[in-house]
Amino acid sequence: MSKYSDSSVKGARIDHLGIAVESIDAARGLYEALGLRVIHQETVEHEGVRTAMIPVGESRVELLEPLGPETTVGRFLSKRGAGLHHIALHVDDIQAAWAELQGRGVTIVSPAVQTGAGGHLYFFVHPKSAGGVLLEICQDPV
Amino acid sequence: MSKYSDSSVKGARIDHLGIAVESIDAARGLYEALGLRVIHQETVEHEGVRTAMIPVGESRVELLEPLGPETTVGRFLSKRGAGLHHIALHVDDIQAAWAELQGRGVTIVSPAVQTGAGGHLYFFVHPKSAGGVLLEICQDPV
Fold this sequence. Notes:
The structure is a homodimer. By secondary structure, chain A is of the alpha+beta class. Helix content of chain A is 20%, strand content 35%. Chain A contains 3 helices and 8 strands. Chain A has helices at residues 24-33, 72-80, 94-103; strands at 13-20, 40-44, 49-56, 59-66, 83-90, 114-115, 121-125, 135-139. In chain A, strands 2-3-4-1-5-8-7-6 form an 8-stranded mixed beta sheet. In chain A, a hairpin with a 5-residue loop joins β6 and β7 (121-125). At the A-B interface, β1, α1, β3, β4 and β5 of A face β1, α1, β3, β4 and β5 of B.
């Protein structure tokens, strides 16, 4: 554990880093060289993306490979090139986080707290409110 | 802890995320709204940067504000705008990681494993070998 752990708030952790890549097969080797492992791969047709999940401590790296150029990640690659797509922060109370950020005038991309695969909850904060980073706030299924 | 923790390798964790921002004072509010706290601020004159450290679980977010336009982070902001500057992965054996990556032909930016503030060890992998991300590999002081 980090020496800073005690200073952090309960439930807060970096849930995952979403990294847009041209090819999962080409990108995974670096992580495998460091002893990390892809434990799950999944194709999400309706989002136009193939994902590979690599656990790193309490977090994970998720490699995102587009199924075609006219997908969200495909357009990101065309415009920005490979690189970080989003950072996901886990919190214990996503409804409180939503209310707090709304109250402070933070620009939230999602129309409401969303329910994703497996029942986890999430919403996205616009990069202009998050230091240029697309920030996902998420919570485990209740 | 994440449900994926058991699948990860010993010692591996996301040490920190370095995020380049125009202003720490403007950027920190979002994290504070989520209950996170800046526990340390530091000006590193020879790197031309002011930093603010925000613990998040076993990791931390480090906000990086340039001291001027002709600094590493200043040039990054001019070219790319605010956003993720680098991801730092902690490993237990940085010398083994260095040797393994070198052996695989990964492009390493640093000329050797470096010793940083407080005695921690680190080197940087070029974004072209790491899915477009500037990747720091680090280890606690020995």
